[in-house]
Amino acid sequence: MLLEIITFILILIALYLLAIMPKLRHNKNIHCMEGWLYAHRGIHDNTSDAPENSLKAFALAVENGFGIELDVQLTKDLIPVILHDYNLMRSCGTDKKVSSLTYEELQEYHLFESVEKIPTLKEVLELVNGKVPLIVELKIVWKADKICTIVNELLKGYSGFYVIESFNPFGLMWYRRYAPKVIRGQLSTDFKREMTDGDPLQYFLLKHLLTNFLTKPDFIAFHHVYKNALSFTLCRKLYHTMPVAWTIQSQEQLQDCRKYYKLFIFDGFLPKERC
Predict the structure, then answer these.
(1) pLDDT tens-digit map of 252-268
(2) Which of 7, 94, 158, 233, CA to CA, is 20 to 30 A from 182?
(3) Domain ranges in the chain?
(4) Which run of H or of E encompasses 138?
(5) What is the pTM of this model?
(6) Tens digit of pLDDT for each residue in 192-216?
(7) CB atoms < 10 A from the CB of 5, how many?
(8) Calpha distance 119→58 (Å, rounded)
């Protein structure tokens, strides 16, 4: 009986390790991510003329020599635009969803009472023009096909370095199947502690990176507060997956996280160094 129990436990451990196993054969271009700090939604201040995810904020990141992390979602007429929230309430003061408005209708609104408007991905790519690397977060509610197809088609013509990331594993599965050479990252956090609304089972799977066997991410972008999470630690130490920290909000946090992470996405301060 004891032998059966031990065998069962060992099988469970093996299955767990297989489930969280990311991509083992490193993408040859992943080194291009290194040597940069990444400005979360650009160098921004939502009370200034350079609010988050604005062209002004991205221009400031380029001028200061930082990589950029940005958020992409689709309008009603399937234009990829840059905005974090699905709803415009926080950024534009109106209770409407990006997906319910055309791009032309979106142009009626300004970001955080500034002169800046919601930019398209195309505008951002033209602005950055390969000067700094990009981390493109795909905002996917459920189905991934449309946004992945449209964004990938646009990025294929971009000569600069970029990677994609998403909380949604279906987006990474799409990239694994249709664009396997693109470096992809799994975003995660402790959803329960963050009190995120949603399906508890889904968030359990994502927190513990139990979809990695399906998505095979090249890197794991994890909320830096939970740097000791078991699955993340195993991916980092056992599988040697690139660990990316989000979102660092002070120089002290940056220093404290250096032994746990290789890359850093920062917000709310200007780091003393550039990498």
Answers:
(1) 999 999 999 999 999 99
(2) 233
(3) 37-163, 183-270
(4) strand 134-138
(5) 0.96
(6) 999 888 889 999 999 999 999 999 9
(7) 9
(8) 11
